[in-house]
Amino acid sequence: MKRLKVGIFGGSGYGGSELLRILLFHPQAEVALVTANEHAGKPVGAVHRNLLGLTELSFTRAPEEFESLADLDFVFLALPHGQAMEIVPRLPESVRAIDLSGDFRLRRREEFEKHYGREHTAPELQSAFVYGLTETNREQIREARFISNPGCFATATLLGLAPLAAEGVLSGRVIVDAKTGSSGSGAKAAANTHHPQRMNSFYAYKPFTHQHVPEIEQALRAVGDWTSELVFMTHSLPVARGIFASIYAETTGEMTVEDVRRLFTRFYRDAFFVRLVEGSPDINWVKTTNFCDIGFAARGRQLVVFSALDNLVKGAAGQAVQNMNLMAGLDEKTGLILAGTNP
Amino acid sequence: MKRLKVGIFGGSGYGGSELLRILLFHPQAEVALVTANEHAGKPVGAVHRNLLGLTELSFTRAPEEFESLADLDFVFLALPHGQAMEIVPRLPESVRAIDLSGDFRLRRREEFEKHYGREHTAPELQSAFVYGLTETNREQIREARFISNPGCFATATLLGLAPLAAEGVLSGRVIVDAKTGSSGSGAKAAANTHHPQRMNSFYAYKPFTHQHVPEIEQALRAVGDWTSELVFMTHSLPVARGIFASIYAETTGEMTVEDVRRLFTRFYRDAFFVRLVEGSPDINWVKTTNFCDIGFAARGRQLVVFSALDNLVKGAAGQAVQNMNLMAGLDEKTGLILAGTNP
Amino acid sequence: MKRLKVGIFGGSGYGGSELLRILLFHPQAEVALVTANEHAGKPVGAVHRNLLGLTELSFTRAPEEFESLADLDFVFLALPHGQAMEIVPRLPESVRAIDLSGDFRLRRREEFEKHYGREHTAPELQSAFVYGLTETNREQIREARFISNPGCFATATLLGLAPLAAEGVLSGRVIVDAKTGSSGSGAKAAANTHHPQRMNSFYAYKPFTHQHVPEIEQALRAVGDWTSELVFMTHSLPVARGIFASIYAETTGEMTVEDVRRLFTRFYRDAFFVRLVEGSPDINWVKTTNFCDIGFAARGRQLVVFSALDNLVKGAAGQAVQNMNLMAGLDEKTGLILAGTNP
Amino acid sequence: MKRLKVGIFGGSGYGGSELLRILLFHPQAEVALVTANEHAGKPVGAVHRNLLGLTELSFTRAPEEFESLADLDFVFLALPHGQAMEIVPRLPESVRAIDLSGDFRLRRREEFEKHYGREHTAPELQSAFVYGLTETNREQIREARFISNPGCFATATLLGLAPLAAEGVLSGRVIVDAKTGSSGSGAKAAANTHHPQRMNSFYAYKPFTHQHVPEIEQALRAVGDWTSELVFMTHSLPVARGIFASIYAETTGEMTVEDVRRLFTRFYRDAFFVRLVEGSPDINWVKTTNFCDIGFAARGRQLVVFSALDNLVKGAAGQAVQNMNLMAGLDEKTGLILAGTNP
Fold it and tell me: D320 phi and psi, to 5 degrees?
């Protein structure tokens, strides 16, 4: 098989950094283009110094006109919110695209504009996008031309809730207490990621208003008969990588941990990257990997699902490549056996 | 006024370490005795090297017989669970005691034995103990001879819930997603506090079974008409100090953040050590202090209270000294203006 | 005694933050003014949230004209390099000043201009400044009107080298391998303190060119007959606070650790804030305190001195207050018994 | 080519953990055996939870008799010091071995016994061992049956000094200020790796007496005409992984950074895993990889070499596999393209 030619828009952020870490070593892909306007001309290994010695690639400016992209098979868009909607309409027809931003995640234009605080300039393309939560959407993803890759919090939450929503066992409100590492704020220094503060911090932010809330609700409605109220709260952890979601639900009837595990095992029987663990997962065991680890606690009708993943891998670049694999007819694991480390 | 003579049983752990840091500089107290069997004879500053140069005190063995303690005004018991109940019955009658362990926190003997996994050897003394959550129990504390000092998780949770329970505005189950720093596991090295693992970890533990659950429920029943179901989940944070509790409640009617703040302001009008903050508290701002910072988020009847404190200070040694101050007729702040640091 | 009225220029940075933490609780001082142009009008406790509830003070803009400062006894200048030299000439004659920046540390104007990359606009005032390394300069400090407070690296290095230089036992070059925590880079977020990177980093910076080099050499010449070559290398540590200097020297004759300790004990016999420790010091035991802990290793004529302090306290604000105490005729320890914590 | 059959003795420690992370995905190797007495019978993924889902392998007890090992091509010994010398003499003749402990690193028995504090029980085998610093010993390694894999500090130091020693440009004493992450203390919890302390610590340990000193001196004598005095000082860093060595040397004549770089470039022309960087290396960029990053600073005859690597990879398991590759006639990079991550 000929190697897939891929381009990455936005190669200097953490999403781009992780796409490069994965795609440069993907046995069926070849990175033909990686853009980063502020670093144009610089070798990739001079910016992402982890990759020094591992690639000859250099960053380029984003092309002025897009015909030149026609020989690409896939384009990954790892840009700040609002830029993908400018780029996607201009892509040559033969190019498939995976967008890691929020631009095409929300079906309803009003919801996008409310949560992202900007006008949508390509709403007509929304229907061409498939939501890329791989484990629940494989068939559609295989056929898609455009993928909107899920948010990191949304992925952790949805992988913990989807089996329950699909089975229709949820009753009443669901509370998600979610925590993220500092890389979730991106590669640019900012007050909330200033090391002397952050290393001793834990705090909540964006209560009730996080932009992943409508994304989660929309995806749960797609999976099952979701009517619960969602209380979603995000917090900041003093680690570089990792999302941990503690999901508090009530079930329609009493369930033991074993009951729940059976339900999840069935739902995820083909999902290599979902690991059902004993007790609690730990972000320590998923960091740098494409795994989402899930564990459970239950008492009567009270159920708690714990979900842990690496925000930059399963929560971003890893899942994006997983989706590309499916779209290209490859095994979804290709290039994604990124073993974590101990310690 | 003559200085209070105080003794500390268990001076080598983190609770003892913090008692020393506070009491050695308390303007109305004098540490006359500090025990630590394994360090007997060693200067305090050789073990707690932060105190080197600040005290001439040395550790001693716990005394064989207790008559010698008769000239002490107060004894602090900072020992592993199960030891205070052996010591308290032997204390001379003139000595008042503040126990930082769980030995006398639970009124009902069966609950103690279930949650602490041991027989209670002094159940007859239980009724002599007052629960030392200062902000809700000041009057009783002033008159008490014995104080059972609250657990760290319990303090954070109760300070966030007590005003709501007292006002009777809670409806339905309450979910507490609580997180603690690694010093909560004590001063002895253990697998779950092994630095190479812990620095990148976040995980849940003791789901539904934490020994602070009955303590919290008992205290809430004392404060108001508590009938809610409590779902209480503890997690481990990769910081040294700090507890952060995200408390999810439903209120009987809709409440805004301002409504809630008013309610809390009234309840804590005399509580110097409870600070009501804008937005979320952050453990970074309470570390090493006796403050509990509390913030709110609300939507309709959904209310989230965020509560942050230092597990070793307001969650242990600081609150213990606050209680001693009340028992001795002092201002509760005496010796407790421990300014935090930035960063 | 009437309380000293003090003003702080530059109250929003970490130096200012620490001056506030100390001076607000100093029994003989009263903070009458604290400037921070970007935060003018805001309560101190809204910016340094550790101080919330502990002070009613608000930030002001720096005054336009300085006559209003005439009732201040002391002014602390905690500003970026280059600003103190604009302010000091305008201070009313009755006001004494302690400058935490590098503006007046170097006697020779050319050295200042070379290392700080700017013209000196008040060179005529240089001779009015006394170098504020308290432990070596007490008598001059008591009489001074202006103090240039030492740099953090310089303090750690000088306290480790001064006794040896004074005794004339050094031979050949001296190598200082110095490491600092991230708060040394200041309170503003920057690439080198971005949490996701910094938490796993250790690297060297400014090899051979750090601006503390001429400061150290000048101070050593003042203390003894310093003719050694100094190799000074700075590194970044992934902690918030702390400087650790490993100082490699050769002595003119063989010295045991006990010999060295005796020499240091004599030199520092009146120095409460220098603690000579067994084995190595640890930044963990000096963080948030005004102590400098010093330890030794020796083999034949090879001597290694280890020096540890908190860059923001003994390396900045703490030493500044120590100097103010001397200038005001107070015990140098006044307000500086800042007990560290364990952990 | 038939896959190499390898066995790992001591699979539960960090060395074993990293050997598994590498060898399970090595395209030419197959892990046939991994021992861990305390975990015998448990799946590897239950202990090293990063490997959950990636291997079906279970731990076994070390075999009673060793004939069964005859079908192994390689045995890795990742055991505490003192155990390899009991095992190696019993290995079937066809089995080659790579020892990650210190048992066979020192040629002179007296030096071993002095530094490791135990009798050597197989001194007759010492001469059959080749020192596995790959970059300086490739030819001997290819022919070796037994490899003593270098210590982590020794690797970082030697890669920074070998080119200079080989070229004969060193003059006078050499000072190595070396720092290690907490995983260097092993996988077992201990006081010096207790998270609440370690996360804010930096301190020196084993001054002048670290067991890697004779190893470094012996290796430098093998490489060139080493006659300098070595001052070697080890320190503890609050990160999980990484060694950083600041190496202070004097050169026989003046050298610029470019002169030094040319010398190193020539010496390491075939060394894929040594990266010569601009400015300082950073442990952040080598963590989890087999790279050693080296940078320089120079002034006149003063030269500083900075060397950074991951103590568990290039400092242990990675270099061990690199040696196996050579011994097996493979490209030394096989299975070792472990891209680091940003962040």
Answer: -60, -45
Size of interface A-C (CB pairs under 8 A): 60
For residues A53 and A123, state if they share a domain: yes
Compute the nearest-CA separation of B343 from chain A (Å): 6
ipTM entry: 0.97
SS3 A162: helix
What residues of C are in contact with residue D204 (Cβ under 8 Å)?
Answer: 246, 279-280, 295, 297, 304, 306
Q: How many angstroms away from the CA of D241 is the closest CA of chain A?
A: 8
Q: What is the CATH number of the domain that holds C31?
A: 3.40.50.720
Range of the domain at B252: 153-311
- Annotation marks residue A152 as catalytic: yes
Looking at the structure, do residues A291 and A157 belong to the same domain, yes or no?
A: yes
* pLDDT class of B225 with cuts at 50, 70, 90: confident
Cβ pair B308, A165 in contact under 8 A? no
Q: Which residues of A touch D (CB under 8 A)?
A: 14, 17-18, 21, 24-25, 48-54, 183, 187, 240-241, 272, 275, 277, 282, 285, 288-289, 291, 293, 337, 339-343
The yes-or-no verdict on residue C1 having pLDDT over 80 is no
Contact D299 C175 (CB under 8 A): no
> How many structural domains are present in chain C?
2
For residue B333, is it within any domain?
A: no
Q: Are residues B128 and B185 in the same domain?
A: no
Confidence of residue C225 (pLDDT cuts 50, 70, 90): confident
Average pLDDT, chain A: 97
Question: Sorting pLDDT into bands at 50, 70 and 90, what band is C189?
Answer: very high
The answer to whether residue B1 scores a pLDDT higher than 90 is no
In a domain, residue B337? The reply is no
Is C332 within a domain?
no
Q: Say if strands A96-99 and A74-77 run parallel, antiparallel, or are unpaired.
A: parallel
Q: What is the pLDDT of residues C48-102, one digit of tens each?
A: 999 999 999 999 999 999 999 999 999 999 999 999 999 999 999 999 999 999 9
Residues with Cβ < 8 Å from A183, sequence gap 6 or more? A14, A240, A241, A311, A312, C196, D343
Over the stretch C124-174, which tens digit does the pLDDT of each residue have?
999 999 999 999 999 999 999 999 999 999 999 999 999 999 999 999 999
Same domain, A318 and A215: no
pLDDT in tens, B84-129: 999 999 999 999 999 999 999 999 999 999 999 999 999 999 999 9
Tokens describing residue B112: 């103690």
Q: How far is CA B249 from CA A293, B230, C226, D218, D272, in A?
A: 28, 10, 68, 67, 58
Closest approach of chain D CAs to the CA of A48, in angstroms?
6
Residues of D in contact with A49 (CB under 8 A): 277, 282, 285, 342
Contact list in B for residue A179 (CB cut-off 8 A) is: 179, 202
8 A C-beta contact, residue A314 and residue A286? yes
Domain membership of residue D334 (yes or no) is no
Whether residues D72 and D142 share a domain: the answer is yes
pLDDT in tens, D208-245: 989 999 999 999 999 998 999 999 999 999 999 999 99
Question: CA–CA separation, B20 vs B31, rounded Å?
Answer: 8
SS3 B100: coil
Q: Are residues C173 and C299 in the same domain?
A: yes
Residue type, C202: F
CATH number at residue D242: 3.30.360.10
Verify that C162 and C265 share a domain, yes or no.
yes
pLDDT of residue D225: 85
Contacts of A305 (CB under 8 A, 6+ apart): A160, A161, A164, A245, A246, A247, A249, A260, A294, A295, A296
Interface mutation vs chain A, best among B200, B229, B312, most A CBs within 10 Å: B200
A14 and A136 share one domain: yes
